[in-house]
Amino acid sequence: xxxxxxxxxxxxxxxxxxxxxGRPVMAPQAKNGRYAFGPLAAAEEFRLxxxxxxxPPKKYLLPQTETLLTxxxxxxxxxxxxxxxxxxxxxxxxxxxxINQMDELFRQDQYDKHYMDRRCRTTIxxxxxxxxxxxxxxxxxxxxxVKSGYDILLTVLPDGSILADAATDKGQELLDPAESxxxxxxxxxxxxxxxxxxxxxxxxxxxxxxxxxxPKLLENAYDHPVWEEKARLCYSCGSxxxxxxxxxxxxxQDQVSWDLKTGERKRCWDGCLLENFATVAGNHNFRKxxxxxxxHRLYRKGKYVPGKIGGQIACVGCGRCITAxxxxxxxxxEVYNRLMEDTELG
Amino acid sequence: xTKPRVAIFDxxxxxxxxxxxxNLEEEILDLIGAVDVVEWREAMSEQSHEYDIAIxxxxxxxxxxxxxxxxxxxxxxxxIALGACATIGGVNKLKNNFDLxxxxxxxxxxxxxxxxxxxxxxxxxxEVVQVDAYIHGCPIDRKEFGLVIRALLLGKKxxxxxxxxxxxxxxxxxxxxxxxxxxxxxxxxxxxCGARCPSNGFRCFGCRGYVxxxxxxxxxxxxxxxxxxxxxxKQKMVLFGSKQEHTL
Amino acid sequence: MCECCNGxxxxxxxxxxxxxxxxxxxxxxLYLHLEMDSGKDLDYRPGQFVEVSIAGIGxxxxxxxxxxxxxxxxxxxxxxxxxTKAIHKLQAGxxxxxxxxxxxxxxxxxxxxxxxVFICGGIGLVPQRSFIRYALDNRRDYGNITILIGTKCYTMxxxxxxIALWQERKDMTVLETVDEAHDCWDGNVGVVTTLIPxxxxxxxxxxxSICGPPIMYKFVLMALAEADVPENNIFVNLERRMKCGVxxxxxxxxxxKYVCQDxxxxxxxxxxxxxxxx
Lengths: 346, 248, 278
Hints:
The complex is a heterotrimer. Chain A is of the alpha+beta class. Chain A is built from 13 helices and twelve strands. Chain A folds into two domains: about 5-70 and about 85-200, no CATH class; about 210-345, no CATH class. Chain A has helices at about 10-20, 60, 95-105, 115-120, 140, 170-175, 185-200, 215-220, 225-230, 240, 290-310, 320-325, 330-345; strands at about 5, 25-30, 35-40, 65-70, 75-80, 85-90, 120-125, 150-155, 160-165, 180, 250-255, 260-270. In chain A, the strands form two sheets. Chain A has an eight-stranded mixed β-sheet. Chain A has a four-stranded antiparallel β-sheet with strand order 5-4-12-11, with no helix packed on it. In chain B, strands 2-1-3-4-5 form a five-stranded parallel β-sheet, with helices on both faces. The radius of gyration of chain B is 19 Å and the shape is globular. Chain B starts with a strand and ends in a 7-residue tail after the last helix. Chain C is α/β, with parallel strands linked by helices. Chain C is built from four helices and 15 strands. Chain C has helices at about 80-90, 125-135, 160-170, 215-225, and strands at about 15-25, 30-35, 50-55, 60-65, 75-80, 95-100, 115-120, 145-150, 175-180, 190, 205-210, 235, 255, 255-260, 265. Chain C has a seven-stranded mixed β-sheet, sandwiched between helices.
């Protein structure tokens, strides 16, 4: 495995070669003054300087709607496996951390072949952040840089050249044919300065504790007034769930074709903030209060999911929920800091 | 298995939702394959008093319409409200904000008192008879129409979302209309349209009606956060939200 | 095909099973006896559940009511939604999809040598019947067996013939009550907690299993606390929306527990820090 350096021009050729390789390349592009991951048609559409995308790249690994099974109505089902090889280009570190967590969650206990098959066929080219977004707090969450999960890590160096560091054979094979120069010691040092800078800059909201303290913090915060205070304004619209790179809850529904004879069992994104997320048949809703649903999300991020993945905090500090929340109540840092204050006072 | 007989009726409306069914194009053949359409004024000349499923378009605006609807209900095993006029009363409910006499005067001028121009407060279909399924929207969404009809044919509860439009709007990666300083009704309006309006550069007008439990109380403070007022919001809610349960 | 996924089965793919017997237990509850089309019995333990489906209609978690000591799989399905309505229309010979078994089990090993007390409210009898039948089929392994059954009204009583047979047995005690008095009912009237003082076993030393509607737990648990029953001797069986059954979809979560994996059977003392549970 080796690191190479691209000039801007060489980098464009590298991206063009990826596009021409036949696999779809999904990369951040401008959309209505924001950025969104989409199929890349031309190298120059890829925005190395994007701040954050509206939705995280999870939409390619856990699609908004995905067919799990096909069937004869009332009869037997067969498993659908439609994953195709794909390249995710320009994944920011916080999103890479989120994907690493999802990998673990879908792999552990009961192996989710639908997710894992897609994941295994995906090549990920990560990219260190060039422009911090308005609400990013990745530095607070320890996700401003990332050390694993990607096949290649790209870093735009202060001189404008691009360092590409292969971490897997899959990544190395993509770099090998591209025109580049081997990275020198100085380039790696320059990358370190980018990392150091990002560790400070990606912190528009500052969490007052180490993220590893959150599970402990939440142990005694269950009945804190903050849940009610915030959730009072909650529309239960699930925007915070939708845009979250670590939210992976889903619903499953059967659909049938017009002949009413064949159909598909589909899974689609769901969100724990939505009114009927915990409603069972017969209409009993086990989490009917807005505040209880609001609290559940922040407990999931700070305590419950960490319990399943070795303590890793399931908020990666992308700040998307802060931007997406119409009522402006979703900021996890505000809530956690508020709990910190009161714990210290208590 | 004999195919269920379907009759489509219209009341006060623009008939645009029926047009959406016509616009199913190739899929309309699938629909006709799945059901026997026995009455549909907009698309065929036959009529029938015998049907299993009645699809009602339009709102109820005259006393005689109530009687007609009740007769349809008594004949149908299943009654579906089609489109905003039928499901929530739709734009026609704007009338309910005014004195009926003034309304007639304004619309018909000197003929206002003619007996055939009699009018009453607008009602949604379920304010007159029991409704078994709703297909929301102004106009309806063709894809959702298919999903609801097929679910009903299989004896299933139709998959009508009970969550707000924001869910689908975020999924489409739209920039929130509030970030443009606009008032959008998306956070309190039932999804299912695929966030059609916000995806095409408009705010949500609220044509699908409120979610079951909209947080209207939050509105005042949330509007403040955007430098807007509840009055601004109320104004936006008049078009489809007049005289409804959750109206501010 | 991706290599790392080879060898893993699709956790969402149901197997087919055939309905071999069906009968209505009351106006809303349908009893089903199923056999797997594979010819092999499911390898389950009392307390577990399966995901039952009709392709095109949907899938839902259903408690297993039979004991692994018997052949086939017994379920009781309440007519309450689209899927269960469709299941009620099925006849013997018709097919269902089955995934599982999933979830935790009753402490059949740990309970050996102990007196067993089952407290059942309404369809709460259904999953507990699995443990009851297992204990009866391994009768010498367990001490006294006491079953308290509370039903809202006389007409909704489940497994009447079987309960009558249990009541005739000398090696167990079955006490029944209905919430509402009825002309055809000359037994106890009142909620299930009114039967608790009639238990003859040494309660604090017994293993107690509870299942019933959400509202019932609070009152039964209060009565047991008054009787000095330690919380680690109490097992509850919780209902939630176990949509996927495999700990992924998030719907059945109660605080940090997944009912589909950590439950549905919980030792009550393990729920001390799980405020959403009861």
